[in-house]
Design brief:
CATH topology of chain B: Rossmann fold
CATH class of chain B: Alpha Beta
Low-confidence stretches of chain A: none
Strand order of the largest sheet of chain B: 6-7-8-3-9-10
CATH architecture of the largest domain in chain A: 3-Layer(aba) Sandwich
Structural class of chain A: alpha/beta
Number of domains of chain B: 1
Number of strands of chain A: 10
CATH superfamily of the largest domain in chain A: P-loop containing nucleotide triphosphate hydrolases
CATH superfamily of chain B: P-loop containing nucleotide triphosphate hydrolases
Order of helices and strands of chain B: EEEHEEHEHHHEHEEEHHHH
Oligomer: heterodimer
CATH class of the largest domain in chain A: Alpha Beta
Mean pLDDT of chain A: 92
Chain lengths: ~280, ~280
């Protein structure tokens, strides 16, 4: 149960003057149940890569296997793939259109040709999973707050019961609490249902806190692919490609330079605080 | 009176059904009074739906108050005849750079504003040049905006406002869609405008670390100003901010966490330097 990308290349406008190599020899394995963060500056190929995973874009060359089957085979059912690999675009609330929240979430499963009862069960379940209060289910989606709309849009994809959920900057423009709530619920989904999560994000702090593995994209290639600690140890190289480490990593480096015996690879506040307290005690 | 002054400002969104009957009223801004002085760097924080964008849209007369008054450089935004002068005095930059750029070439885009004001051609070019230099984008003047990164596009948007020689710039979440280096570029450019050019800046953001240098911070909740003060005063109140669905910069949060674990530290540490000094290492 996994996605395998085997030497995937994608070229925009091949054989024209505007040719751009958007993906360059990508080889990746996405095993079931992982929480993966994808980071990279604007134009690094993150979104193009995500659109390959559910067959929205077809690679110029190379192969993609979903659960062992080549998705480019002539008789492969791409429609089924898209129900298994759910993609939540940036600002997904712009895609809400139904009269009420519940109907909007039903739209996806209804199109899978499921029975009405099953569709409604799935919609209820999805809305509960994203933590939307029940009194909002029959309101117009356009009267909700930004964070609530975003949740409805995510529920719309969850109702398709995907095995893999890809989210392209799900927290852009949300307030800090909204950011924490949505990411917390996604994390819970992963631990409770074993869903594979791929999170595209510009927030290094969020990525550091939630994911098991980070893929760093640069100029269409995979630059790093490792656990957060190891990726953020390359903070100088990350800065050169428009990224950064979480702020707390910089603080730890600064403290270390001043002679405090702390580990420089802390990526979350909790970890850093524990380590500083230990170092201060050691000094005293 | 400062550059922007609001007195008992109220704004209500009226919801209507299909027949035009009033279904309900949402008070987005609820009796806000504030006075912003020329040259200040002001930050406005608040959770989604707290009313900060609605308030900002009053500052260049995109919205007019339901009750109360807002003055921009002494001009009442309720008076129709002031609108063009108000929009030249207070420029606005929005979240999505792609919605704000219209020119095919960077310098044409930046020249659009002054051209519409009827500025002589020679002066337009001078303004385009100085504006692009101020945001560090002069070398891209002949480029197509389509090929630029998000941070670069956003700086072009800022230059476009700057070329109209405003006294005040209102930025509504200008970095929400940017990667870390784009965010840094934009904030550096904005601080430059304030420090070097003396332009009043009103920055709305969800990124707490962008506003540690602000002169004053307003925190909005339910259409009202819930907190106001210097960044240090505001960020000293970690729990209160979290109740308002906000956050503090990571250094401040780390210091707060250390304090809880028994390390002696003052409240409201805003930078790594301050943390190092306070730890005495």
């Amino acid at each position: 149960m996994s996605i395998i990308l085997d030497h995937v290349n994608y070229i925009y406008g091949e054989d024209t003057a505007l040719m751009v190599k958007a993906l360059n020899d990508i080889c990746l394995t996405i095993p079931k149940g992982q929480f993966i963060g994808v980071i990279g500056h604007t134009g690094s190929g993150k979104s193009t890569l995500m659109q390959h995973m559910n067959g929205l874009i077809k690679a110029t060359s190379g192969h993609i296997y979903f659960n062992g089957e080549d998705i480019y085979d002539d008789d492969y059912d791409l429609k089924k793939l898209r129900s298994k690999v759910g993609l939540v675009f940036q600002y997904p609330e712009h895609q809400l259109f139904e009269m009420d929240v519940f109907s909007d979430v039903c739209f996806g499963p209804k199109n899978l040709g499921l029975e009405k009862k099953e569709v409604e069960l799935r919609a209820f379940d999805a809305l509960r999973k994203v933590g939307l209060p029940e009194d909002l289910f029959y309101q117009s989606p356009f009267e909700l707050s930004g964070g609530q709309k975003r949740r409805v849009a995510i529920a719309g994809v969850l109702a398709m019961k995907p095995e893999v959920l890809i989210l392209d900057e799900p927290t852009a423009g949300l307030d800090p609490k909204g950011r924490d709530e949505i990411l917390g619920q996604i994390k819970q989904l992963q631990t409770e249902t074993g869903m594979t999560i791929i999170l595209v994000s510009h927030s290094m702090e969020d990525v550091a806190e939630y994911v098991d593995r980070i893929i760093v994209m640069n100029k269409g290639s995979v630059m790093y692919d490792d656990v957060p600690k190891k990726v953020f140890a390359h903070y100088k190289e990350l800065e050169q490609v428009g990224l950064a480490a979480p702020q707390v990593t910089y603080i730890m480096h600064a403290l270390h330079e001043k002679g405090l015996d702390v580990k420089v690879d802390a990526t979350t506040i909790e970890e850093a605080a524990g380590d500083i307290v230990k170092a201060l005690r050691g000094k005293a | 009176m400062g550059i922007i002054k609001a007195k008992d400002l109220v704004y209500e969104y009226i919801r209507r059904d299909e027949d035009g009957n009033v279904e309900g009223i949402n008070t987005a801004v609820d009796h806000v009074s504030l006075d912003i002085k020329q040259g200040q760097f002001i930050a406005i924080l608040g959770h989604n739906g707290s009313g900060k964008s609605t308030l900002a849209k009053h500052m260049n007369a995109i919205l007019n108050p339901t009750e109360g008054t807002l003055w921009v450089d002494g001009m009442d935004t309720n008076e129709e005849k002031n609108i063009w002068n108000i929009r030249q005095t207070a420029g606005m930059v929005f979240q999505n750079p792609d919605n704000q750029i219209i020119g095919q070439v960077v310098e044409e885009d930046v020249g659009f504003g002054p051209e519409n004001m009827g500025i002589p051609t020679k002066e337009i070019w001078e303004r385009v040049e100085e504006s692009l230099r101020a945001v560090g984008m002069y070398e891209f003047r002949k480029h197509s905006p389509n090929k630029l990164s998000g941070g670069q596009k956003q700086r072009i948007s800022i230059a476009g406002v700057l070329a109209m020689h405003p006294k005040c710039i209102v930025l509504d979440e200008p970095t929400a869609m940017l990667d870390p280096s784009g965010r840094k570029e934009v904030i550096r450019a904005v601080r430059g405008l304030n420090d070097v050019e003396g332009i009043t800046v009103i920055l709305i953001t969800h990124y707490m670390d962008e506003i540690i240098h602000a002169d004053k911070v307003f925190v909005m909740d339910k259409g009202k100003i819930a907190m106001e003060g210097t960044p240090r005063e505001i960020f000293s109140q970690v729990e209160k901010l979290q109740e308002l669905r906000l956050d503090v910069p990571q250094v401040t949060l780390l210091a707060h966490e250390l304090k809880k674990q028994g390390v002696k530290l003052p409240d409201g540490i805003l930078t790594t330097k301050e943390l190092i000094a306070a730890l005495g290492i």
